[in-house]
Amino acid sequence: MIEDKNQQRTDLGNLGEFGLIEHLTKNFKIHQKTTVKGIGDDAAVMDFKNKQVVVTTDLLVEGVHFDLSYAPLKHLGYKSVMVNLSDVYAMNAQATQITVSIAVSNRFPLEALEQLYEGIETAAKIYDVDVVGGDTTSSTTGLLISITALGEVSKNDVVYRKGAKPNDLLVVSGDLGAAYMGLQVLEREKEVYKVNPANQPDLNMYTYIIERQLKPEARRDIVQLLKDLEVKPTSMIDISDGLSSEILHICKQSDVGCDLYENKIPLDPQVISTCEEFNIDSTTVALNGGEDYELLMTISQADYPKIKANPNLTVIGFITEKSAGMHLVTRAETKIELKAQGWKNFSA
Ligand code: ADP
Ligand code: MG
Predict the structure, then answer these.
(1) Which CATH code for domain 3-153?
(2) CATH fold of 169-337, please?
(3) Grouped pLDDT means (10 residues each) for the chain, 348 residues
(4) Which of 90, 267, 282, 304 is the most exposed place for a label (fewest CB within 10 A)?
(5) How far apart are CA 232 and CA 158, in angstroms?
């Protein structure tokens, strides 16, 4: 929110397109065995041998997906990578390469793009993916970032959205709703700042939820955990749009119904207290909030003993026959039909 007047501002026009590309990509090194050729030719070359390859892409648009008045560019770069890796992990695959394409207006100095790429580089390093290409062009309006991720998975391990069977357990990693509540806090602080720029907000009690919004982590560890536990989910999806929307995707594609238990939905204490402060229902936030980047999966009942003691995985319901429909079982033990836009329009 605060612009540093002393910051160096190198005009992008001084570098030219090729100079810019070279500057931004000079630190990227190749680590993956599957990368034959990275940045620097007309196309990258990969050799996946006998593995299946997954590909996924996401486009992030300034003003739609992010707001630079509170999202630091470094975090934005990191998050742009996470959004894509999360989709790779949702296939039970390992992410191996990404490409990064940006459209940028010359209102951004070189230093801003350096920060963006610092975040991208950090994410690539931590998650062990090679940056093998991209594209760079100008934009007359805001910043656009498009990342494509590649991953590998053996034929027997790939997990689709379809595949859930009646009686399977509905399981989620981590906790839900934090990213949405972090956004609420940031939006509120932005309004306060507009009125009084001298006001320094105390965000100490919101550190977890703000971090979940600005710097999420994709659940690579869960894919590894499932492997270690010898559990192959019958279906899986990542939670980018809110729990209810993702459950509906699994049920539709698997041709099944489900019972989701409100009292089982994992919530962080900071989510609960912030919901109270904002007077928002925490279940609504978990169901419709989005951007959690947790993994939602179904597992066979036979695998329950393997996961039951694990603090990273929570059973939140089970799969039913399609004819039974898709329901939320509330704390008051009433059944409400699950809708993609949540259940608040329905009175219990
Ligand atoms: P082309 O004219 O074939 O599109 P470019 O000059 O755009 O080639 O890109 C040169 C090399 O740099 C290519 O390997 C390309 O994938 C890579 N590259 C271009 N822009 C970016 C970027 N923003 N981030 C990472 N790599 C990039
Ligand atoms: Mg190009």
Answers:
(1) 3.30.1330.10
(2) Phosphoribosyl-aminoimidazole Synthetase; Chain A, domain 2 (3.90.650)
(3) 64 88 94 97 96 97 92 96 98 98 93 97 98 95 96 97 98 98 95 85 92 97 98 98 95 98 98 98 95 98 96 98 97 91 44
(4) 304
(5) 9
